[in-house]
Amino acid sequence: MTLDVEQTTITEPVPGSDVPVQLMYVETWDGLYTPIGLRIPSGEGPHPVVLLASGNGGGGMPWVRQAVAEKGYIMERLLEAGYACAWLRYRTEVELGYELGGPLIRGGRQGRELFNRSPLEYEDEIAVVEFLRTRPEIDPDRVALIGMSHGGEMVLKLTSDYDGVAVAVASEPASHEFLSLTPDNTAFVDPETGLRNIEEMQMTEIEKVRSRIDETKARERISTINTPILVMGREEDHLQGIFRTTYDLLAEEGKDVEWVSWDHPVHGYIYPERGPDGAYVVDEVQTAAIDGIIEYLDRHLKG
Question: Which CATH architecture has domain 10-301?
Answer without folding.
Answer: 3-Layer(aba) Sandwich (3.40)
